[in-house]
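Our preliminary data section would be incomplete without showing what the modeling component actually yields. Below, a chain of 425 amino acids is followed by its predicted structure, encoded as tokens that our downstream tools consume directly.
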Amino acid sequence: MKVSLKNYSFRYLVPLLFAVIGIWAFLFYKSIVDEVYDNIDDGLKNQKIEIIRQAYIDPSVIKVDEFGVNQFRILKVSAEDYDESNHLTTEMVFMPYDGENEPYRVLRTGFHGVDKEKYILEIRTSMMEEDDMIFNLSISLIVLYVLILLSALVIHQVVIRKALKPFYAILDQIKQYRLGKNTHIQSVKSNVLEFASLEEEVIEMINRNEEMYQQQKLFIENASHELQTPLAVTINELDLVLENTDIPKKDYLKIVAAKDALWRMVHLNKSLLMLSRIDNHQYKMTDEVNFTKVLQNELEALNSIIEEKQLYVQFENKADFIAKFHPEMARVLLSNLLRNAIKHNNEDKEIVIFVDKNELKIANSGSYIPLNPKLIYERFYKQGTATNSNGLGLSIVKSIVDKQNVITLLYSFFNNKHEFKIIKK
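Predicted structure:
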């Protein structure tokens, strides 16, 4: 599944942000706990000094052997158990008020009393509940994470959208660009070095492609034009040879086959020349063209072929289809559609033509499989194994429709008939 660059980068930002905050939370928690313990320990040591000093002033303090409100006790110990160093531990002590054990920090240290006896002083103080602190800290971190995430999302969307604005402007122009349409990439202002470089490369690439495209079109037009004369001369020479009645039948048939091949080459050459001229906008003049009359004229011109193939033509004319069009282009367009219907017909031998003021339809029986609308207008594309087609007829039709830009051409397959419909824009 493809996602936009903004969502793609944010998808990686979320887990990274979660990991960073998690590590930061752990370090923060350890730092807080160490600081709390350090403060408590300092307090206990200070309290130790105060109690021992008071024990020397007031010997009754030595007799405190149970933890009371002052949270300390003094116990007499033997010489073996005596130790003057400070021992700090965390112990759980039952609290009657809460009915549960709570953590206490305990300091144990030894000292000599006024009576020269050895004593152990135990001082304790309640600590914060670590579980509660972890829970509260976790809740705080989750809230912090969500807030940071939402903030990052908003900032990310705003910043990325603004930063990528020149990129999308260039991308939109590339999408709209069509080779040979004389479209130009408009300069996009950007202070980002990469986008400026991208724009320069795209413009340079388009200019290079346009130049090559124009050179190819010129080459095809020139080559097609130059081929016409030698082809016509060759066909005429073959006609003169065929007039010789002394030619053996075997050679005669070979010459006829060569002549047919040359005629196919002539038609192909004319089609390429026509496409080149259409692409070069050499048919700009337009006039009110009555497509219905042009269609009738082309039917008359093709009548011999229609009769030879024994095709049945159903022609329904409800109104004349008139449009602003180049007259010759209208003739070529309708002639190619009719020739296509004739050439690719099958044993049903039907051609159905319908005309009114808004649409013109030419349908024919033929292959029982729908044509691929993405391929039928491609140059040199042939449906099936048609050998008498150069694959340029419908390409010429599509080029004419695109260049004249006043009608729309649609293809459909209905009731086992291939239908090409022309409608006004």
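The radius of gyration is 48 Å. The first strand starts at residue 72 and ends at 76. Preliminary results of this kind motivate Aim 1 of the renewal.
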